[in-house]
Design a protein that fits this description.
single chain; 281 residues; alpha+beta; Monooxygenase; Jelly Rolls; 2 domains; six-stranded antiparallel beta sheet; five-stranded antiparallel beta sheet
């Protein structure tokens, strides 16, 4: 197959050319269609169809679909590549499916729809407000933020992983990395406080893992740029069904209006791990 030469041979893979010889051992006869042709057909079918419908057809097809070569080739054709080319995935099938599904699970992260999608937990002082950014973020397409007041303001979202397409079996077997990201920034003329708590929850909303760093305090008359809070959950164990994301804060000088911390561009993403054991498809 013409594409076979473009594959990376550094990682272990099953040579497609050897499938034909093994086919006779499986069935006693050579296949009517060479497996190199079968693979080309499979590479042009949707991935889930290949796994669910084509893989069980016969031992030869199962071995082909399970090979690293098939998924590496599929990734290459669809432009899906690791961020660090020097550290290729251990499991290309896992890498393909997680990367294809990857997206921000937070709804309305940059205040485009006021507070739609958010549950207001605390609404102190003059309450939450939406404003234009006073300072640009590194991503200058983000122009709005949520603003807190002079008493505690907190808001949260509960992410149902099942509804987002991540089944209990998927999360339990694979335990993919869960990346949390949040941007926060002060006004120059007022001190403020920022806090965040992200919880991984079981089916009864019981805590499995939590990220809750110390509160961030910023003094008045500061030249602080936007801060970026990042955390990656790893090896958190089975049973994760929900993710609860809570953040907010207040100003520390009790000024009427909206002088407290700003938050925007929040995200929760299910990510492929750099190194992970193979998972059963």
């Amino acid at each position: 197959m013409g594409q076979a030469e473009s594959r990376n041979t550094d990682a272990p893979l099953t040579d497609v050319r050897s499938f034909e010889s093994r086919s006779a051992a499986f069935s006693g006869v050579m296949p009517d269609v060479p497996l190199t042709v079968v693979e080309e057909i499979l590479l042009n079918l949707p991935a889930h169809h290949v796994v669910n419908e084509c893989r069980p057809v016969c031992p030869e097809w199962k071995e082909l679909v399970d090979s690293a070569a098939h998924w590496r080739e599929r990734c290459m054709r669809e432009g899906i590549q690791p961020c660090d080319a020097s550290r290729p995935p251990v499991d290309w099938c896992q890498f393909y499916f997680i990367t294809k599904k990857r997206r921000n699970l937070i709804k309305n992260p940059v205040a485009d729809d006021e507070f739609q999608g958010w549950e207001i937990v605390e609404n102190g002082g003059d309450r939450w407000q939406v404003e234009n950014n006073r300072r640009p973020l590194p991503d200058n397409t983000i122009t709005q933020c949520f603003v807190t007041s002079y008493r505690l303001c907190l808001k949260r979202q509960l992410i149902d992983l099942q509804k987002e397409g991540y089944s209990a079996a998927f999360m339990g077997h694979l335990q993919p990395h869960i990346k949390i990201s949040d941007w926060y920034g002060p006004r120059r003329d007022c001190g403020c406080e920022y806090q965040i708590c992200v919880e991984l929850l079981g089916h009864k909303k019981n805590r499995i893992s939590v990220f809750q760093p110390e509160k961030v305090f910023i003094k008045a008359w500061n030249d602080e740029p936007w801060g970026h809070m990042i955390h990656v959950f790893k090896d958190y164990g089975p049973g994760v069904r929900f993710i609860r994301f809570t953040h907010g804060g207040k100003d520390t000088q009790f000024w009427a209006g909206w002088y407290g911390i700003r938050v925007t561009n929040s995200s929760v993403e299910i990510c492929p791990a750099a190194e992970r054991e193979s998972f059963p498809v």
